[in-house]
Amino acid sequence: IWPKNGYNERNSPPPCCNFPLVMIGPQSASSDLQVFWRSVGLVGFAELFDKTWFMGLLLAMRYSPSVVFAGSFIALFLHCFFAAAFGLAFAKLIPQHVLNYLAAGLFV
Description:
By secondary structure, this protein is mainly alpha-helical. The chain has four helices and no strands. It is extended and about 45 Å long.
C-alpha cells in the first residue's frame, strides 16, 4: 500500500505505471465528518440553482412551508419508487446485453 502523500524509493509503482502523482487541493488529515460536511456544502451550493429547489422556494414563500416540504418529500419518494419499478421492469423485459449497449449509448 502506498502512502497517502505519494511514492518513495521503497514503494514506487512498477515502471509501466510510473506516472506523476497529481494531488488536487490542500492535503491534510481531515476527519470523515469534515469531509461529509464539505460534501454537503458543495452539493448544497450546486443545488441552489436547480429548478426544482427554486420552485420549492417560491411555493414555500407563498404557502405553508411545512405543506410544501411534505408535498416535495412525497413527490421525491414517488419519483424514486416509480424509477426503481420501471428500472426493474426494464431489467426483466430487456436482455442484459441489450441493456449494456443502451447504458453505454447514454454516455456517448
